[in-house]
Amino acid sequence: MNGFVPGRTAGGTPQLTFAEHKSWENYLATVLRMTSVLNRQLTDTHKLSLSDVHLLDLLDKSPDGSAQMSALAEALRSLPSRLTRQVRRLEGQGLVERAISPHDRRRVIVTITEAGRTLTEEAMTTYANEVRTHFLGPLTRPQIAAMATSCRQIGDGLKQIQS
Is the domain defined by 48-127 classed in CATH 3.40.50.2300? Predict the structure, then answer.
């Protein structure tokens, strides 16, 4: 035996096994392609990016249709400056409104408008159809359940790192 350890280079650096590498590469390629498909379809159909739809959906699902900018930035994993530009653009389209919080003048509150709610509902229909067609469609029910479980486990592990 020449001292070769499977999964390691000659210098001892850990490497992914072939199966691990293929699993990760397939996942990453799928996420990137699916994101591209969703962005293209949402932009072509509704003039909204996937990120815009996610933001509007968060507001639409909030109890009063509003959220603080800081909470939105955290939920969207977005830099505050990027979120500010995005909200300004959506405000220019009449989909959201910004206001200073009546409880704390240092905070900005974003509220979805009726036009925003209408467009969000339409965009979420497109979103669901695209996900069902291109992501879930090729899978069996057991595969969908297994993917949900796997992604939840991965996500739960990542939450612990980010805490």
Answer: no
